[in-house]
Amino acid sequence: MELTIDFLKDTALCIYDIIHPLIGKKEGANKSHKGAGGDLSMQIDLVAEKTLIDILEQNEIDTLLISEEIGEKYIGSKDKAIENKNILIVDPVDGSNNAVRGIPYCSFSMAYAMGKYVKSIVKAVVVDLSTKDLYWAVKGDGSFFNDKKVHVSNLDIYDNCFIELNFSKKDAFAQIERLGSIIRRFHRIRVLGSTALTLCQIAKGSMEAFINLRESNRLVDVAAGLLILKEAGGCIFSLEGNEINEPLSIDLKFPFIASNKNLSSFLKDELNRKF
Prior knowledge:
10 helices
């Protein structure tokens, strides 16, 4: 059975109802074991993931769940999940460090794929855990911010564009120097802390580009935002300028570039000279 976008949206809003009261609270910050995604799990992450699994089991959903904390787990019938090619890729709390400190930039993201590759993602939902704003997309039908259809901005490199940067702390200064010719062309730089939300910001035209050089960037961080951005007319590609279409796996990690269409050629040309 194919999952509907309404089911995904309702599920995301249920997660919001449970997690929003924990934002900025001490109990949400308690640390546990290291999750499958590689980060130390916090209580807020575990509560979100358990809530999701409970919802899936109560609704008798048969799917492979790829989630930051649990890794890969079949929910319901494994045989039916494989037969129907159902895969859910989830980040229970994207921006956990923001969430536990009460910084209002964190999200729950969920992508639904019918197949084994990134291009198989057909539906996606991201809910802002601070505002309850809902970003969603269905492949071929566009992207939406709550009930309003959205599109990337039409700004180009000669306009006042905003960019977000993300790279590891250990080589931050070297990366800034390496990207100097790109950074100088942008009007404002941001470092916000929730990959899914930033891809949604580009999708609705509030920002123009995102350079994420972290080798540890995970599939679960990107999956939902990737479809939402593409359906809003945006672009996402590897540092080499190629389409991202790897097999879906908790182990999949990759740096990437995201932007509106007007900036993609400039970014690809500049990055080709730098990397």
